[in-house]
Amino acid sequence: MYGRKVKLRFLFIVLILITLILSVFLILKALEENVVYFQSPTEIKLLSELNKNKIRVGGMVKKNSISINSNEVNFIITDYKNEINVSYTGAVPNLFEEEKGVVAEGFLKDRNFFSATKILAKHDENYMPPEVKEALGEK
Questions:
Q1: Which residues in the chain show pLDDT less than 70?
Q2: Dist. CA 61–CA 98, nearest whole Å
Q3: pLDDT of residue 43
Q4: pTM > 0.85: yes or no
Q5: CA distance 62 to 57
Q6: What's the rounded Cα separation, in Å, for the pair 128 and 122?
């Protein structure tokens, strides 16, 4: 019915499609564990269920909330609607201070407590991470 040349072309196209689909699947699977979602304290309070994936929580450091014990830093991130307590072990960035923007990366323990593995502070007087700005409703 079909010639040998047509069958070879069909086989070649099928092999290319299978290779392409497999490549995309493997790339997405590898990136899946490196994806970190950003959430504000209000979004965390509204979660229907807590997951154990790494996330980023952003907002402003609440005034008079920073507590430093040996190498552990505890503070509160607020978006002026809700708050979340953050615990971080390690050195904080030089720009980390009260009433300044911050993004903490780590794991949720519950809706009120966040264990941070990394703290990201803002760069200069005018900079605020886009996610934090959006969460705070600023322009």
A1: 122-129, 132, 138-139
A2: 5
A3: 87
A4: no
A5: 14
A6: 6
Q: How many helices (H) and strands (E) does the chain have?
A: 3, 7
Which residue type sits at 51? N
- 70 φψ region: left (φ > 0), alpha (ψ -120 to 50), beta (else): left
DSSP string, 4-71: HHHHHHHHHHHHHHHHHHHHHHHHHHHHHTT--EEE-HHHHHT-SS---S-EEEEEEEPTT--EEETT
Apex 48 CA angle, 46 and 51, nearest 5: 105
Look-up of token digits 């322009």 = 139
Output the pLDDT for position 90.
86
**CA–CA separation, 76 vs 79, rounded Å?**
10
Q: Give pLDDT tens digits for 93-123.
A: 888 888 888 899 999 888 889 999 999 876 5
